[in-house]
């Protein structure tokens, strides 16, 4: 049994607390939401845990994570360990790690995949940090990862920053895979050749080279709404796709699929694209192609 302080009990953090407790670990959670928190403040959380402590932070990337790490640098003691399990940019990890190291506090960055299904299915984990720190936290990682061989759901990717870098690339790949499924769905719908599009996509779940968990989730969505008419085609991005492309540029690695998937998300947010109005105007100018007026 390992004792853990868990900060951030949102969609993933809450389920992680439940999975860890089901595995027999003692988890003390903190969240600003009084309905789910176990303690009132971060200071209360630290005082509740026995030293040396392990704290897992699951808060939004950026300033929220930086501020939380800063607070813990003043609350924790030498020999304690902090794990950032949010979607932080890998370059932030060195800053956070150095801040804690100055106080003798260990730091691990953990990329976590699995979403809202992780409570039952387990979470894919990619971590960065010193070997001794990672080994110390292995009971926690083993409880969170899927059942089966450790190497199939967990990786010690390298030093501090490597875990979040791996998760960043993972999410960039995710963008491309989802976009490919989405475009295939649209083509099947538009061609008027296939009569039962959901049945075709469901048939891909076994024996085909495109089967995956994301495909299973698309099938689930189509079971609930066969033509996806209940949804608006507006898609946000949480940052990792942009960061992946920036790193691809920095390392001169071609990433056309990921870039196209990210730009497709940008396009989904434009009710009236100025760029496409310009394309329509140009086609009309050089070729006399028909245009559709705004009031049509």
Q: Looking at the chains present, what oligomeric state does this protein adopt?
A: single chain
How much of the polypeptide forms β-strand, as a percent range? Answer: 5-15%
Through-space gap between termini: 67 Å
Regarding CATH, which class of the largest domain?
A: Alpha Beta
How many separate helices?
13
* CATH topological fold name of the largest domain: Rossmann fold
What characterizes the major β-sheet? 7 strands, mixed
Number of domains: 2
InterPro entries: 6-PGluconate_DH-like_C_sf, 6DGDH_YqeC, 6PGD_dom2, 6PGDH_C, 6PGDH_NADP-bd, 6PGdom_BS, NAD(P)-bd_dom_sf, Pgluconate_DH
GO molecular function: NADP binding; phosphogluconate dehydrogenase (decarboxylating) activity
Organism: Amycolatopsis cihanbeyliensis
Family: Belongs to the 6-phosphogluconate dehydrogenase family.
Give a concise summary:
With 296 residues, the protein is α/β, with parallel strands linked by helices. It has helices spanning 11-22, 42-48, 63-75, 90-101, 118-121, 131-136, 138-144, 162-190, 197-203, 213-224, 240-250, 256-268, 274-287, and strands at 3-7, 26-30, 54-57, 81-84, 106-113, 124-128, 154-158.
In words, what does this structure look like?
By secondary structure, the protein is α/β, with parallel strands linked by helices. It has 13 helices and seven strands. A seven-stranded mixed sheet has the order 2-1-3-4-5-6-7, with helices on both faces. α4 links the parallel β4 and β5 (106-113). α3 (63-75) runs parallel beside α4, α8 (162-190) packs across α11 (240-250) and α8 (162-190) packs across α12. It is elongated, with a radius of gyration of 23 Å. It starts with a strand and ends in a 9-residue tail after the last helix. The mean pLDDT is 94. InterPro entries: 6-PGluconate_DH-like_C_sf, 6DGDH_YqeC, 6PGD_dom2, 6PGDH_C, 6PGDH_NADP-bd, 6PGdom_BS, NAD(P)-bd_dom_sf, Pgluconate_DH. This is 6-phosphogluconate dehydrogenase. Pfam families: 6PGD, NAD_binding_2. Residues 163-296 form the 6-phosphogluconate dehydrogenase C-terminal domain.
